[in-house]
Amino acid sequence: MSTTAMNNDLSTRFQTTLLGLDPRKPDYVVQLVDRLLEQAGAAGSSDVHLQPGSEGLEVRWRIDGVLRAVTILPAIIAPNIVARLKVMAGLLTYRSDVPQEGRIAGATATSLERRVSTFPTLHGERVVIRLFADTGRFQQVTELGLPPAVDTPLRAALQETTGAVLIVGPAGSGKTTTLYACLREVMAQSRGERSVVSLEDPIEAALPGVAQSQVNSATGFDLARGLKSLMRQDPEVIAIGEVRDPESAGTAFEAALTGQLVISTFHAGSAAEAIGRLLDMGLEPYVLRSGLRAVLHQRLLRRLCQCAQPLNDPATWLGLPVKQAHGPTGCLQCLGTGYSGRMLLTEWLEPKSAGVVRVILDRADAHSLELAAIEAGMITRWSRAVQAVEAGWTSPLEVRRVLGLGNPLP
Q: What is the sign of the dihedral through the CA atoms of 62, 68, 73 and 78?
């Protein structure tokens, strides 16, 4: 089954949900938007893209990290759909000439919010809605699918009383899911006897026992200010949704050096690159040497479906140093994609060895940092990707899609 067939199947399913709606009724658009968000969530989508064009409003869902075409809605109702989403997100319906960002609040106190972003384009406003992951999945660190060489030291790091544990990766790599699992691990290990607080933007799930706060830059309650105030709240563990700027990075590491365990996410392409970015932000090397406990870098790769077939031509291995490989075929079970679910690729870097410490103090570049970490025993994302391909868990094409066309060898 081809990808086109899969898209057609998604379209058929969505169109079926719309059969009971009457376009002549005044609440038609309201019900259409509700069905759109409901069905996207049911399909496991992380994002909904509404792309205006000359033919209408193209609907696409991001499933397992890949955008899939669903349908094209009539252009005549596109402005009404956008207006409805703006109302739900508390945005200005009369402004279509500037980008806007908002949130759709959950129906109940425990429901998840959804982020809405609008952007003006040639044919109208483009809308992207972020749907947060199911909070019932991946509750604990042991459920994340981390290799033992990462799972064990991560759980040990979460028992420490000081230092910073960074969870890094590109957007959409599951960093927040891992962060929440780490907080649940802290609560389970301590039996609720540690003071655990968080600063997030936004809060994606309610965590029992954790004092969660959501920053609001519009009111002056930004990340840096929130962190400084939290330091006077007698915290033992501080979780930060994302370190984004030099001020918040400096405050986070100040906390890590003065008696708190800090757990945070951070955008970076590798574990070594995360350290390089922090140095570029102006953090002093001695602060990183003393305050950084570990960096967990992660990526999400799609798993091959059981319908996968061997790739006998080495040219299809796309330059990966593997001895065997499988590729996607497509069947009814995987909706023609050849993949079913996702797996984690990880790097675990602890700046303890003399070689790693030396390159940090020398402000070396990310490549030198990575070489030093490999010499100290770090298994790179590329090495784990090669292992996953040889084991038949994923394909060379998927590895290249996620990691790019770089050299897999150090």
A: positive
* Pair 100, 48 in one domain: yes
Query: In total, how many domains does the chain have?
Result: 3
Spatial CA neighbour of 201 closest among 130, 150, 251, 136: 130
The one-character DSSP state at 97 is: S
Cβ partners under 8 Å of residue 332, min gap 6:
1
Distance, in Å, from the CA atom of 395 to the CA atom of 391, rounded to the nearest integer, reads 10
Please give the residue range of the domain that contains residue 225. Answer: 134-143+163-168+177-266
pTM confidence score:
0.87
Kindly state whether residues 366 and 377 are assigned to the same domain.
yes
pLDDT in tens, the chain (410 residues): 555 555 567 777 788 878 788 888 999 999 999 999 999 988 888 999 999 999 999 999 999 999 999 999 999 999 999 999 999 999 999 999 999 999 887 655 445 678 999 999 999 999 999 987 655 555 789 999 999 999 999 999 999 999 999 999 999 899 999 999 999 999 999 988 999 999 998 888 889 999 999 888 778 888 888 988 998 899 999 999 999 899 989 999 999 999 999 999 999 999 999 999 999 999 999 999 999 999 999 999 999 999 999 999 999 999 999 999 999 999 888 878 899 999 999 999 999 999 999 999 999 999 999 999 999 999 999 999 999 999 999 999 999 999 999 988 87
Residues β-bridged to residue 240? 199, 264
Same domain, 289 and 300: yes
